[in-house]
Amino acid sequence: MREQPIGEAVEEWYLSDVGWPPEKEFEVFEAHASLVKAVAGSRGVRYFTAFIIDVPSDAYLGDVQMAIDEAAGEACGILLTKHVIGRDAATGEPVLAEEATRPFKFPCGEGVAKAIASFCDKLKMAGIFP
Q1: Which of 5, 63, 98, 128 is deepest in the core (most CB within 10 A)?
Q2: What pLDDT, in 10s, does the model give residues 9-46?
Q3: Among candidate residues 128, 113, 100, 108, the one with its CA nearest the CA of residue 36
Q4: Which residue has the higher pLDDT, 5 or 55?
C-alpha cells in the first residue's frame, strides 16, 4: 500500500474548493427537523455541524448538518443557507430566512470529515455550490 505524500493531501484539499473549520458534534434537538426525520429509526446516530467556505473566494456557503450512523456505514446531510428577505420596519435590521436542502443519504464509513467532503462533492455536482 502506497503512502500518500503530504503534498498530495494538501493539493486534494484545495482541489475540492471548499473548506471548513473542525466540525462540532451537537444534540438531536438542535438538528433541522428534515434531517431528524430522514434518519428516524436509526440507532446510534451522531449529529455534526460545520460552516462551509468556498476556498478560492473565501465566501461563506452555508452550514452543513450531518447525521452519521457509523454502525450502518451511512451518512445523511443537509445544507442550511440564510437569505435576506427584507428589512424590519421598526429597526431597519435585515430579516433573514433559513432554507435547507433536502436530506441526502449516502454510504460513508470513513468518519465525519470524509462524510462532509463527500456531501460537498454531491452539492457541487448538483450545482448548489459554485
Answers
A1: 63
A2: 333 333 367 888 888 999 999 999 999 999 998 888 99
A3: 100
A4: 55
Query: What is the DSSP track for 28-96?
Result: GGGS-HHHHHHTTT-SS-EEEEEEEEETTTTEEEEEEEEEEETTTTEEEEEEEEEEEEEE-TTT-PEEE
Query: 6 pLDDT exceeds 50?
Result: no
Q: Is 9 exposed, middle or buried (0-12, 13-18, 19+ CB in 10 A)?
A: exposed
Cell reading at 80: 442550511
| CA distance between the termini of the chain | 35
Query: In this structure, are residues 73 and 107 in contact, taking their beta carbons and an 8 Å threshold?
Result: yes
- Condensed to tens digits (0 to 9), the pLDDT of residues 110-124 reads 888 889 988 888 888
DSSP 103: P
Q: What is the pLDDT of residues 77-119, one digit of tens each?
A: 999 998 889 999 999 999 989 899 999 999 988 888 889 988 8
Measured distance CA(106)–CA(108) in Å, rounded: 6
> Which residues make beta-bridge pairs with 8?
none
